[in-house]
Specification:
The complex is a heterodimer. Helices cover 38% and strands 30% of the residues of chain A. Chain A is an alpha/beta fold. Chain B starts with a helix and ends with a helix. The chains are: A alpha/beta, B mainly alpha. The A-B interface holds A 49, 52-55, 73-74, 77-78, 80, 82, 84, 86-92, 97, 101-102, 104-109, 112, 116, 118-120, 122-123, 125, 149, 151, 153-154, 181-182, 184-187 and B 7, 10-11, 22-29, 31-36, 38-39, 42-43, 46, 55-57, 60, 118, 122-124, 126-134, 301-302.
Chain lengths: 309, 302
């Protein structure tokens, strides 16, 4: 997949009276699924609304898929689908009527709009319910319709503002899986905002962390959550004695509760790695200790916050 | 309908061994897009349907149906009377339509918020403004639809009278020729009424996200203006004809009388200003309403 830029902002600033919602934010977002993370009020929604042309920046500029936001409004509206954070479903309309109407408002001819609406509603997993008024929908169903209306005009970039808001854990998983599938299988780039770091980790290629309207970090996720140089070994028995035996063999190891953390000097060099694995095996044999688990520790998105704070 | 092969190739050919593909029908769209004009007409059509409650439950149709039926009845009654008396009872278009204006206000107060306030109440504007609907095209499409709907309702009794008067004549084809010029006041009255009423209705509903409050605001404004006009007339000693211009309903009643060349005792005693004043007033209300609606939509935080 080419890493084309979907979003480029240049010292984007937005002020609401005395409140600075965005403080000269400069960020580049590549294609793929990108998480936009920040606490409530960090400026996530403001950034998304500026990109969508709903809010004018106080200063600075931004480009969405090579279109400048205040110049090529119409081109951007074709390329971008938006799922807002708030409720936006008229309760007395059915999902089919609503999504069809949204397609018409994106300039689809009537028959194409109806066909498209049926397809996206099926894609998000709404079947018979789509002929019922939306006032009676559960939060999970409402979120699906909101995603469907964002997809109905076949955008190249999806902007999803807190799509898992208000969902129970199962609903959250389903929504994330749906977003991931849409992004991966159909080559749609996705920007998904959330205040929950953990859930984004599973589906995102990259993450942009903002706080108080300022950029904290923007990274590809592989760098952050890839394998680290720490090997986790869990043994049945005395962990500290096990670690001491490893240290005696010239392998650096520490104890964290029941786990022995072995540091592999250079993760890129397989000989070091093999030596560390051999040492663990030998110590285990020597001490008749059974190994419960042995794996490379992976980085977590939460580490971002440790760095940031 | 679904195209597993195509999906496979898009997914990188990972599932060519026949394993399940969870494609539930999503495809890329390569068909035509009719763009801004298509979006405008979609919005217009949806608004006109909403003004009459079409495609909605029966409850939503109550006020439009009531207003249309009740305002047509006097016209029908007049036609029956005229027909029974062999054309001896004159058909007074201006007077009949003037008496229906308050019912048209009911239609405006009930239905305009349906079109304008609901989008704000249900926070639909951000969805529309990120599509091929611009803030200005939203305002113009909604206003055009409101004005068209009011035109239909306001012209229905007049057109019934017009067609009926030709139909009950002894020689309809001759009546059609002599009545030819009558169609202009019919159209003028309906168009100007539609513009003035949509102007007031749209300007108020655009500022009131709650439907019920918008309805109350529109009805209240018409009543308030009537009360002020009456007060100026009675208490402040402002001339009756000047005060009347503040009250859109009375102004439109007088306009109808002038347009159809009719008169009543009050108009004989106290001649109204020339028709141009009324045309300017109603056109002005329409233009002002559209401008306010557009101004509001350009500034609203979506």
């Amino acid at each position: 997949m080419s890493a084309a830029l979907v979003i480029e902002t240049e010292s984007l600033t937005r002020r609401y009276g005395a409140v600075l919602a965005l403080d000269s934010l400069t960020v580049r977002i590549e294609s793929g699924i990108t998480g936009l993370v920040g606490a409530n009020g960090a400026g996530k929604s403001t950034l998304l609304k500026i990109l969508l042309g709903l809010v004018e920046p106080t200063s600075g500029t931004a480009r969405v898929m090579d279109h400048t936001i205040d110049v090529d409004r119409q081109a951007i509206s074709r390329l971008v689908g938006y799922m807002p954070e708030h409720d936006c479903l008229p309760p007395d309309m059915t999902a089919t009527e609503f999504v069809t109407w949204m397609a018409r408002c994106s300039g689809f001819p009537p028959s194409a709009a109806r066909e498209r609406a049926a397809e996206v509603l099926r894609h998000v997993g709404l079947f018979e319910e789509r002929y019922r008024p939306m006032g009676g929908y559960s939060t999970g169903m409402a979120q699906r319709v909101k995603l469907a209306q964002a997809l109905v005009h076949d955008p190249t970039l999806l902007i999803l503002d807190e799509p898992t808001n208000g969902l129970d854990p199962a609903g959250r998983d389903e929504m994330l899986a749906l977003i991931e599938r849409t992004g991966r299988e159909f080559g749609v780039s996705v920007i998904v905002s959330s205040h929950l770091l953990g859930e984004l980790e599973r589906i995102c290629d990259g993450v942009v962390l903002i706080d108080n309207g300022r950029l904290i970090r923007a990274e590809r996720l592989g760098v952050l959550t890839g394998a680290t140089s720490t090997l986790i070994v869990e043994v049945d028995g005395d962990a500290s004695a096990f670690a001491e035996a490893l240290v005696a063999r010239g392998v650096s190891a520490t104890v964290d509760r029941q786990m022995v953390l072995v540091t592999v000097p250079d993760a890129t060099d397989t000989t070091h790695e093999r030596a560390a694995f051999d040492a663990v095996r030998d110590v285990a044999v020597q001490r008749h200790a059974s190994l419960l688990r042995m794996e490379r520790r992976r980085g977590h998105l939460e580490d971002l916050f440790d760095v940031a704070s | 309908m679904t195209q597993p092969e195509r999906v496979n190739s898009q997914a990188g050919g990972a599932a060519t061994d026949g394993s399940t593909i969870h494609d539930l029908g999503y495809r890329r769209y390569a068909g035509p897009r009719v763009g801004t004009s298509g979006a405008w007409s979609a919005l217009y059509r949806q608004s006109v349907r909403a003004m009459f409650g079409l495609g909605r439950p029966a409850k939503a149709k109550a006020v439009p149906v009531l207003v249309i039926v009740v305002t047509m009845l006097p016209a029908l009654g007049t036609l029956v009377a005229a027909s029974a008396s062999n054309g001896q009872v004159p058909i007074r278009y201006g007077q009949i339509i003037g008496a229906q204006l308050l019912l048209f206000v009911l239609f405006v107060a009930a239905q305009v918020p349906e079109v304008l306030s609901r989008d704000q109440q249900h926070q639909l504007l951000p969805l529309l403004f990120t599509r091929d609907v611009t803030r200005v095209s939203y305002a113009t499409a909604r206003f055009a639809a409101i004005a068209s709907a009011i035109f239909c309702v306001a012209s229905a009794p007049l057109i019934l009278l017009y067609v009926g008067e030709i139909g009950i004549a002894k020689d309809p084809s001759a009546a059609f020729v002599t009545m030819g010029n009558r169609i202009w006041p019919v159209l003028a009255q309906s168009i100007l009424t539609a513009l003035a009423m949509s102007g007031i209705g749209a300007a108020l509903a655009a500022w009131t996200p709650r439907r019920a409050y918008a309805t109350a605001a529109i009805f209240g404004t018409f009543l308030l203006l009537a009360a002020i006009a009456a007060g100026l007339d009675d208490l402040a000693g402002v001339s009756r004809r000047t005060a009347e211009l503040l009250d859109p309903i009375r102004a439109m009643q007088t306009m109808a009388m002038i347009l159809f060349g009719e008169t009543n005792r009050g108009m004989e005693l106290n001649p109204p200003p020339p028709i141009g004043v009324y045309v300017a007033l109603t056109l002005g209300l329409g233009v002002a309403g559209l401008s306010l609606l557009t101004w509001r939509m350009r500034r609203i935080r979506a």
